[in-house]
Design a protein that fits this description.
By secondary structure, the protein is mostly helical. It has one domain: Orthogonal Bundle (MetI-like fold). It contains ten helices and no strands. Helix 2 packs antiparallel against helix 7. It is elongated, with a radius of gyration of 22 Å. The chain starts with a helix and ends with a helix.
Length: 271
Amino acid sequence: MSRNLIIGAGLTLFFTALAALSFLWTPYDIELLDIPNRLMTPGGAHLLGTDHFGRDILSMIMMGARTSIAVALVAVGIGMGLGVPLGLWAAARHGSLLDDLIMRGNDLVFAFPSLVIAILITAVFGPSAINAIIAIGIFNIPVFARLTRSAALPLWERDFIRAARVCGKSSARISAEHILPNITNLMIVQGTIQFSLGILAEAALSYIGLGAQPPTASWGRMLADAQTLVSLAPHVALIPGFAILLTVLGLNLLGDGLRDWLDPKIRVVRT
């Protein structure tokens, strides 16, 4: 087992545990304002200090982890749940009009980054975590569709697929029983990468006011609120910034470690 996998899994599990714990307990109520104790430095009763409203930063970090992970997880689920079947469908109909339509549709979505899609959705429905999920999820669909198609196409030329065709299996059944199991490892690795990008996207959307709205805690919102306090109380900005950094780093290391662990070719070379 690689060092990247161990470190990445450790960081990911740590922040996931913080998010899970926030459902049961936080040191303080994040909606409780304590103005006399605003901008306290880390230590004492407030382990990570307080923000400009006197709210406990550790509690905010825990609740923000729940928001970021939930948004990114659902968005990646949407992207994978719709993108993988589309990619399998396009690969099974390679060279047909359907294949061209799916790929050109993916190109169209790629032309609009998730931030632009979020702005369009927000202009119609208003800013919220749900709309952030939709925006990030829509952007993830072509990512998984293109990757699935590119990974599945070479498999359709393999002898075991030809044998399945001779046995009378339909394209849909071959895709489900033979193609998908052979590319699952790749989808898992890509999923961890898109998960980290989803957390970054959620933080960016919340930072500009298009993501989770108060009183829901969000790391991006914490950064936006702290941007004018960097010289006065740097910990208010540094702590959520490091939370985003470590979470994304952990997921990227986890993805890299999973790639090395799940890919037999890389594993053989390293051994």
